[in-house]
Amino acid sequence: MRILGLSSLKPDTAAALLEDGVPTAAIENDKVERGGSHLRSDAAIQSCFESAGISWDGVDMIAVATRPFHSWSQKSLVRRKLSALGPAASAYYGVNELGVLTRELNRLRVLRRFAGESGHKVLTFDHHLCHAAGAFFASSFERALIVTMNEDGDGNSGMLAVGEGGGIRVLRTIAFPHSPAWVFSQITGLLGFRPHREEHKTQWLSLEGEPLYKDVFLKMLQGRDRARPRLDFSFFNRSLAHQPAFSEKFYREMGLPADPRQLQDSQRKALASSMQAACTEVISDVVEDLRRREGIQEVCFAGGLFQNVLLVASLEKRLGMNQVFVPPAPGNAGSSLGAARLLWHQVLQKPRTAAPLHAYLGPKFDRHAIRDVLENSKNRYVFSNTEERKLDAGVQLLRAGKIIGWFQGATEFGPRALGNRSVLASPWAAYVKENLNDFIKHREWFRPFAVSVPEEDCEKYFEASPQCRFMNSMGTVRPGIDCLPESFLLPNRQVRLHVVDRRSNPAFWSLLKRFGEEAPAPMLLNTSFNLFGEPLVVTPRDAMRSYFSSGLDALVMDRFILSKASLPVSAVSLSVQRVGLGA
User: Fold this and answer.
1) Can you give the residue range of the structural domain that contains 273?
2) What angle do CA 31, 37, 40 make, to 5 degrees?
3) Which of 97, 129, 161 is the last residue of a domain?
4) Residues 502, 373 share a domain
5) Neighbours of 570 (CB within 10 A)
6) Exposed (0-12), middle (13-18) or buried (19+): which is 242, by Cβ within 10 Å?
7) CA-CA distances (angstroms) from residue 141 to 208, 257, 470, 522?
8) Closest to 296 measured CA to CA, from 175, 171, 181
C-alpha cells in the first residue's frame, strides 16, 4: 500500500511516500521549486511520484498534516481574547487568517478531486499529532513520552503525548502562543535576524555570551506548576502585532534599551545565551513532570524548536543521552512523513517494523542525466571509470587544500546536508575557515561548520549520541585528544558532529576513510551545498549553477569531476578524460 503524506496545504509543503510502512521518497517543495514568490504547490508531490515511477493512480491513501478549520477556529479564539487591547491588529489578522483558510480549503478540494478520480481516500490530521507520529514511529522505543513544540501548528504551539506500540495517546496540547519557540523567534527579530528563518543564527550566537537574563526569560515562559510553558503576557504587547512584540516591562526588567539598534554586541550575545538556557530549563521541567506522572524515561522530540541542536544536546545531558530521540527532519517538513505513519500505524493498525532510518529520500539522478547536463553546458570534466578512482581523485583534491562540492545519490530530506549534497574541505587546509565563510557560504563568523567522521572512528575522538547521525546534537572531543585545529572547537570542546554510517552512505564513508589514511584523522568539514539564501541543491543543474557561482574549487558528481584549476596529474591518470561535447 502506498500512502502520500503532505505537511500542509500551503505552497511550501513537503511530500512523502510510505510504501507498506517504509519511507521511499520525501522532499520539500522549496528545494524542488528553488524558492520564488509563486511556488507550484504540487512540485514535491510530482517529485515523489517520479522517484516511485507512479502517478495519482499509484496512491492508495493521502494523509495531510493539518486541519484547516480547526487551525482557523483556534486562532480566532486567541484573537477574540486579545481584540479588546489590539482591535486594529486583531481585525487585520482576522482577515488574513480567513484568506489563508479559504486558500487551504480550495487546495483540499483540488486534492480530493484528484483523489476522487482515482478512488483515493484523503484524511487530515492535527499538525502536532503528525509531528508526534513522525518522531515516535521512527524511533526504536516501544513506549516513550512525546513532546512537540513550534511557533504555531493548527492553532497550537505544542503537544504532550505518550507513544505506545502502534498508537499515540495525547495528554494535553499547548495553546498558541505559549511556546518557547514563539519567543525564540521574537528574540531572533530583536537581535536583527529574520524571524521564522534565521533562528539558527540566534542559536549559534548564544555560544558567545553568558545567560545573564535567564531568570527573566523563565518568568516569561514558565507556568506556575512548570508542567507546561505558559507565557506571562505582561512582557508582551497584547496585540502581538509588533515585531518584536515585547512590552516596556520586558526592556525594563532586562535593563535594555527599547530601541534594538542601541543594543551592544555583549547584550545581543547575552540575550541569545539566556534564551537558549531558558528553553533548556523549561523543556527539562516539562519532561521531568511527565516522567513522574507516566513512569516513562524515554522521550521523543519533534517540531521546529528541536531543529536547535544546542538545545537537543543540553536536553540529552539532563535527561540521558540514550533516552532522547529526534527524527532526521524534526521541523514542519517532517510532518509529511508523520502524517503517513500516523495513518499506517494508528488508523490502519499496521505493526511497526525496524525499517532502516536515514534521510536520503529525495530525488536522485542517473549517470546519463548528469552527463547530459555537463555536455549541454559544454563543461570540461573528467570521468572516473571506477568508484575507487573517483575516491582517489576526491581525496587528492581535498589533500591539496581544495574545497569541493560533493553530489552523490539521493538528496537529503530535512534541513541538513548529510554527505550527498555537501561542500567538503580538509580541516587542516590553510585558511579553510576564512575561504568557506568569505567566498562560498557568505555567513557570520560565529556559525560553526560540521565535522563528519566514520561511525567506527567516532568513539576514538568524540563523546557523541546517536542523534549525531543526523546532525541533531553535538559531540564533545574526548579529554586528552587533539584531533582538530582549535578554530573548529566550540566552547567546552564541543563540535557540530556528523557521524557517518557505512550502510546508509557507503560513498561518503569510504571518502572519509580514504582521506584519513594520510590525514591526521578521518574527518572532513561538511556544510550544505547551496548558494547563500537558497535551499540545498537537488538536481545536477542546481549543482552546476552553485559551483560556478561560488568559490568552490572542484565538483564531484557521481563519477564526474570538474575543477576550476588543473586537476592533480595522478587524478587525471586514474580517469578517462572527457572535454565538452566532442570528446
Assistant:
1) 135-333
2) 55
3) 129
4) yes
5) 11
6) middle
7) 36, 48, 18, 32
8) 171
